[in-house]
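Below is a filled-in request sheet from our internal design queue. Each sheet records the structural input a requester submitted and the sequence that came back. We keep these sheets so that new team members can see what a complete request looks like end to end.

REQUESTER: design group, bay 2
PRIORITY: normal
MODE: inverse folding
CHAIN LENGTH: 121
BACKBONE (tokenized):
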């Protein structure tokens, strides 16, 4: 059975968020969707723009007959783990996330993905 646009939009593709040191703002890409890249002034706007970019990328792929690869299986990962950190770091993360206008969870995901991208090259 052929997958629809909504089938692909419902799948969890890995999103990478990188701070643009020169131009300001944040760049978002989906490594499993070649050329699907966007940006935003804040993490929040960059992520919102990324959802629109992903939908446009899928629509263009359908029109052009490009093969769309499904995301790597994440079945064996729950997406949650417990982390103990010093209270001073907890306070700092809470303050920075509030300043960015995002939840502390979103802010920590951004920091982890940015640093993981550096080490995975």
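RETURNED SEQUENCE:
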């Amino acid at each position: 059975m052929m997958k629809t646009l909504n089938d692909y939009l419902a799948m969890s593709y890995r999103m990478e968020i990188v701070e643009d040191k020169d131009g300001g703002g944040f760049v978002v890409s989906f490594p499993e969707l070649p050329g699907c890249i966007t940006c935003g002034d804040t993490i929040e706007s960059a992520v919102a723009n990324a959802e629109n970019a992903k939908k446009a990328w899928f629509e263009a792929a359908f029109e052009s007959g490009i093969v769309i690869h499904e995301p790597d299986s994440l079945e064996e990962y729950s997406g949650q783990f417990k982390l103990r950190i010093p209270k001073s770091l907890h306070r700092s993360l809470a303050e920075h996330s509030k300043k960015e206008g995002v939840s502390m969870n979103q802010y920590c995901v951004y920091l982890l993905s940015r640093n993981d991208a550096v080490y995975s090259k």
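SHEET NOTES:
- The mean pLDDT is 87.
- Residues 5-119 form a domain with the Double Stranded RNA Binding Domain fold (CATH 3.30.160.250).
FILED BY: M.R.
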